[in-house]
Write a structure and sequence with these properties.
- There is one protein chain.
- The chain is α/β, with parallel strands linked by helices.
- The protein folds into two domains: about 1-95 and about 205-230, ATPase, nucleotide binding domain (Nucleotidyltransferase, domain 5, 2-Layer Sandwich), CATH 3.30.420.40; about 95-200, 2-Layer Sandwich (Nucleotidyltransferase, domain 5).
- It is about 35% helix and about 25% strand.
- Helix 5 (about 180-185) links the parallel strand 9 (about 175-180) and strand 10 (about 195).
- Helix 1 (about 35-50) packs parallel to helix 2 (about 70-85).
Length: about 250
């Protein structure tokens, strides 16, 4: 399976080219000029592998959640490349890709589940819960959502109950591995009962390497889409607070 993966939805911009068991990755954390950077990375990985886009099986695209502009870049570039090369596209969320970082190398042991969390700005986080799955990589056990950090503690027990009753393959032990910069932005999240997180994982950002792995699994299962059907995942339609809202938020802060 040959899959190109693109992600520019967060502070990091990354591109990966999966060639069966090998993967070539380019990544930078800049937060700026992601449109130019992603095109440059695409040229670098295809040149290193000596493959053209027409030789690929498909493109895995980051659809968010994340920065509005970055999500649009990922989706638009993937669509443009896929249209021009006659390729299928596969949508992968930033939270799924993060979850795979802690669930993908379990070596047969039960890793529990993952709670992926990104800083959504404006005093909120993007988050979702995922279980490992041999065929799909990860399976959603609590839908991606956005809200104040404290809302995770309120919803987590319900998310776990729903996941257990859903009979997800791989099983859940009630242990959550936390990952993503939402945890470093809001350290109180590390105190949620049942959540384990390392300092390294609290600083993690999505990487195209995991987008490529998930994309390959979904393409193999027939999950490719026509490029026209690729849609960004926006969990809210507001990108900034007003001055009054920022003042009110500051007044409520401990």
């Amino acid at each position: 399976m040959r899959v190109l993966a693109l992600d520019a939805a967060t502070e990091a911009c990354s591109v990966a080219l999966l060639l069966d068991d090998d993967v070539i990755v380019r990544s930078i954390e800049s937060g700026k000029s992601n449109a130019q950077q992603i095109l440059s990375f695409i040229g670098e990985v295809t040149a290193e592998a000596q493959v053209s886009l027409s030789m690929l099986d498909g493109i895995a695209a980051s659809i968010g959640p994340g920065a509005f502009t970055g999500v649009r870049i990922s989706v638009a570039v993937a669509q443009g490349l896929a249209f021009g090369s006659g390729l299928a596209v596969v949508p992968v969320t930033t939270l799924e890709a993060l979850a795979l970082q802690v669930l993908g190398g379990s070596s047969g042991a039960d890793p529990g589940a993952a709670i992926a969390c990104l800083d959504a700005r404006m005093g909120e986080v993007y988050w979702g819960c995922y279980a490992p799955d041999a065929a799909a990589g990860v399976i959603e056990s609590a839908a991606p959502r956005v809200g104040p950090p404290g809302s995770i503690a309120l919803d987590l027990s319900g998310a776990l109950s729903g996941a257990l009753s859903g009979g997800l393959s791989g099983g859940l032990s009630g242990r959550y591995l936390g990952i993503g910069r939402g945890f470093s932005a809001y350290p109180l999240l590390a105190n949620i009962p049942g959540v384990e997180i390392s300092e390294r994982d609290s600083m993690a950002l999505p990487n195209a390497r995991e987008f490529a792995r998930l994309g390959a699994l979904r393409l193999a299962a027939g999950g490719g889409l026509d490029p026209a059907d690729l849609k960004p995942l926006y969990l809210r339609d507001k990108v900034a607070l007003t001055e009054a809202e920022r003042a009110a938020q500051a007044a409520q802060a401990p």
